[in-house]
Amino acid sequence: MAVKNIVESVRDTLGEEMARDERVIVIGEDVGVKGGVFKATAGLVERFGEERVIDAPLAESSIIGVAIGAALNGLRPVAEIQFADFIYPAMDQIVSEAARLRYRSNGAFGCPIVIRVPFGGGVHGALYHSQCVEALFFHVPGLKIAVPSTPADTKGLLATAIRDEDPVLFFEHKKLYRRVRGEVPDGEHTLPFGQAEVRRPGDDLTIITYGAMVHVALEAAEQLARESVAAEVIDLRTLVPLDKQTVADSVMRTSRAIVLYEDNRTGGVGAEIAAILAEEFFEHLDAPIVRVAAPDVPAIPYSTPLEEAFLPNVAGVVAAARRLVAY
Q1: How many CB atoms lie within 10 A of CB 302?
Q2: Within 10 A of 102 (CB to CB), how many other CB atoms are there?
Q3: Does residue 192 fall inside a structural domain?
């Protein structure tokens, strides 16, 4: 075991997978000589050379298009989109090509690419460096989505993503990059997709979340415990596939659910989870399902107080929990 932050876990896992499998390549803006804008690929070009660590032009559709072509020719590309906000030019390549290759080939071939996407607010990145875009891809069959919240999960999920035969969007929350540290297993470490983790057990209500909001949920649960309210915190870890069973088992026991996510409230991942609970587990609920999410405004402001007002926070989760347990 070694204690690392999430950036270190990404970098080390990429290095281990590239050493393990010579088909693994890295491509993206500034991933080579600069080592990435967040230094998540630092040192890789020195170890593996420019043929496997490729500095791409500032053209996201090209980055993903080249990755798809490389995958179809036997390689296993890990493509980096520098910020989630820049992914839109690549939407056609991701949605119309990568996501549909297995379907259009009747299962004959897949598209084994990983798209690393730094996302999320709380870093004063303002409107072009703070977006959450996971809901756009959550809607698209054929894509898998992983969102780690700890350094250990980052390693396990990233290794699994690289070895997967189909496209995986790997969302890394920028606010967590250097703020969260933890023990990371040495050597071989993979985590299965579709297996959520109960970060904190509880019997009074369930908080379902992912990414940076896991840490908000845990802090809220700690505060609620001082009020004799035991909140269970579920870290989804992957959005596609979604671990419905762990969520269902918890909600059937607690009878109350909060879905916490940083994205805009309407049409977000949390809205789908709330719909699943209402449709399939209604008889187990003793209170309405509550969504705690960002407001439906176009972007996160740069101003510190406005950014704080935009982002879901501990106080909002605690207030929602108090309303639920009052039913």
Answers
A1: 13
A2: 17
A3: no
Q: pLDDT tens, 126-157? A: 999 999 999 999 999 999 999 999 999 999 99
Query: Which tens digit of pLDDT belongs to each residue from 218-266?
Result: 999 999 999 999 999 999 999 999 999 999 999 999 999 999 999 999 9
User: CA-CA distance, 130 to 311, in Å (whole number)?
Assistant: 11
Number of domains observed in the structure of the chain: 2
Contact indicator for 124, 307 with CB cutoff of 8 Å: yes
Exactly one of 129, 139, 173, 189 is catalytic; which is it? 129
- What is the distance, to the nearest Å, from the Cα of residue 247 to the centroid of all Cα atoms in its chain? 17
Name the amino acid, one letter, at 265. R
pTM summary value: 0.97
Residues 165 and 258 in one domain: no
What DSSP designation does 126 have? Answer: G
**Is 124 inside a domain boundary?**
yes
45 and 118 fall within a common domain:
yes
Is 129 annotated in the active site?
Answer: yes
From 131, 159, 184, the end of a domain falls on: 184
